[in-house]
Amino acid sequence: MENINKIMPLSLLTLAMFSGTALAEKYDFAMHGYVRSGVLANQDGNRVDSVSLMPDGKWRLGNEDNTKLELIPQVTLTSDAGPVAKIQANLTHETDCTADWNCVDDDGHDIQVREAYAQLTKLDFAPDVVFWGGKRYSSSNTSSHQFDWEYIQYNGTGGGADNIDLGFAKFDVGLYAFTPSDEAKRYPHDKDEQGYPDDYSLNLWFKKLGGGPIDLQLVAHHMNQNEGNGWKQSAEKGYGITGIYHLDGFYGLSGGYSRIVAQFGRGLAAGDSLGKNGWGWANLDDTQSWRLVLDGMASLGNGWDVSTFAFYQKDSNYRWWTGDDSGWGRSMWVAGVRPMQQITKNFAMQYEVGYEYLDDDNFKGVEGSKGKGGMTKATIAPTLTFDSGFWSRPQLRLFATYAKWDRDVADAIDGNYDWGTGTLSAGAYSRSGKTSTWNFGVQGEVWF
């Protein structure tokens, strides 16, 4: 947290400069954020990592081992002529080693600046359009809180405009540049090129087509080959499409919400970058991926809310590292439900049951693991609530979790992958040879 002490004075000075400008008639400051932390221990009295089979996401109730802090300062400037400006940052600290507040990533950054952008709206020539530039999360980002996963996620530096009225739809357009830090400073494979290859994605987002319940997203990617993957003929372009159908209530059966999402990606837009940007640098030109997502929550009355989530994904010619000579087939699916019963205004019971299944043709494990099998996880969590409702926060939870997995995917649960040898070594769950665990803990979670 030392870096916050260095960043905040500079931030406050910058905000003071903005607030003093003659163009601003009104100045507003707000602070939003998110805090999550707790302890996750097993029946042996040891700390443990989250237990999950998927490369992304997990059934999060009773299954989060890290501390996460987001501070989101916002400054809003209103001009006497009408335009409104917003300046926003997102300062994030997150540990990856159980609940240790002092754990930092290998690169040594205590604080990550996830967003730093400015936007303008109510301009005289386009009063309803929001123009933005800087480092930002896309307006299209969509996640499952229950599974702790954004299945639509476009982040990075760039610029664009939101809320353009096309008549037949509202339209957002954005250009985002993003590459993981371990790939960001590699030289181009072509020695005649200058600079560093980066994933540039153009995001076209049509909302409420024809005034109806369908959203459509079109994405195009470009990234030159770098010195680490050019000899493997990695993809330099890709395209993706996402369609979302918003249903009335919970699939028309009760109150709440629900959506059906269909996604397809090819080249840079497939595999680990399906619905995302920046993670397809190892893909081949003919890597293709399909995904179907069911995401919803039913409000049943009498204090009951039930969150549900499921997805199926299939990849062809997929590879997870450029050291692999060719691609292979991979498929995965999950399904889960989290009921919450609000017993009094400030006390609730939460329950969760989830299943994950992985079939990876080229899974490299130890002890003959085949990479084909599933895991079941169940949690019960008595919860203290600030107010009533599934989304009410803060929440304080005491939980007990049971997880059981197939032996053929034991090494995928928490194995440590060696990119040099292409093998997995046993992790804290699999080293004992057991295929189940009881985990316990307490957790606080709040957003504001």
Automatic annotation (TrEMBL):
GO molecular function: carbohydrate transmembrane transporter activity; porin activity
Signal peptide stretch: 1-24
Locations listed in the record: Cell outer membrane
Subcellular location, principal: membrane
UniProt keyword annotations, A-Z: Cell outer membrane, Ion transport, Membrane, Porin, Signal, Transmembrane, Transmembrane beta strand, Transport
CC per GO annotation: cell outer membrane; pore complex
Pfam families noted in UniProt: LamB (PF02264)
Membrane topology: Multi-pass membrane protein
A biological process term (GO) from this entry: polysaccharide transport
Gene3D superfamilies on file: Porin, LamB type
PANTHER family attached to this UniProt entry: CRYPTIC OUTER MEMBRANE PORIN BGLH-RELATED (PTHR38762)
Annotated family: Belongs to the porin LamB (TC 1.B.3) family.
Descriptive protein name: Carbohydrate porin
The organism of origin for this protein: Aeromonas simiae
